Amino acid sequence: MRLALVMMGGGARAAYQAGALRALAELAEEAEPGRHAMPFTVICGTSAGAINATSIASHADHFAKGAEQLVKVWSSLSADQVYRTDWPGVAAAGARWLGALAFGWATFGLAARRTPRTLFDNAPLARLLAHTLSFHRIEQMLDERRLHAVSVTALSYSSGRHLTFYQACEPISAWRRAQRTARMVALTPEHLLASAAIPYVFPAVRLELDGRHEYFGDGSIRQIAPLSPAIHFGAQRIVVIGAAAPAPEVPAARPDIDTYPTLAQIGQQVMASVFLDALGADIERVEHINRMVRHLPETVEPESGWRLVEVLAIAPSERIELIAARHLQALPASVRVLLGAMGGNRASGAAFASYLLFEEAFTRELIELGYRDALAQRDVLLSWLKAPTAGAGEHPERRRI
Contacts from 247-250 at CB under 8 Å and sequence distance 24+? Predict the structure, then answer.
């Protein structure tokens, strides 16, 4: 019974996943006392979830240790460890963007090097990944068969293809769907930076693919089937940790409907479409397919090639933008000024800012929320984390492929 862990994106919101992983590690120890190895043999991540996925995968031999290290990193994080927050750094990128919006691209000339690219420079994140992640341990865990496969997903801005980059303990037939495919590679920090390159916020990353170079951005963009990689890797049960409830997110405060939306309001909805909508839609598809499958005769199953896949989602029980609203002042002054210039006041800007709030006051609250939400599903998780047998720990959300 192959168990998979899928972690979604969401920028700073992904701190929630660290708390959920801490709870999962505790439950794994309770289910199998004395067993340090991680019960999840398939680990898939997208965007910030890709960073969490590779981090926990590198500790497949000691789940609790890996979870605690991830909690430690998120608990002591600050925005300047992820992107430049100094006034020159913010002004250089922000002024180009806002000036271009106000006066047009022609103001900045035709030279590509002078056109605005992103709001923030995430060079600090590249240094953080190089310092905290151990990619050679991922290879070691695969060689020791503690892991079956690890993957991260990104979108090619150059070709429009949605790519899942993966490492596995043995060759796996790469799949190909409409605009979705997979490549077996040796994962690097560049793959994570590409997967976590939030559109317009962080720069795209140049990666080699099929003998040529393409620019990749956040894997949450156009990710219509977040559970697909885990299913292709043979997972029969999937625990998916989201960064928001799998339901449409509406503004915490009703804006003036007669006022033209600010850039922050528009950005909030763009972020929601990138990070929040796909998981809910995929879960809805799971439920829809399950309803159809229940009407199929059992004799069809062996011939269909479909197999049962159970899915358990762990998602925030509280609205993250409301939590973010309490911590907006923790953002560096330079970032607050930039968000203010985009119309990001307390009511309309909290949801947008929540993706950039890499500050410990905010991340620690999300860690605690993730921990509580995972423990709230204790009974089901314990049945899954024990040495599973057919039919054990059944959950209503199932999918056949």
Answer: 247/280, 248/272, 248/276, 248/277, 248/280, 249/276, 249/319, 249/321, 249/351
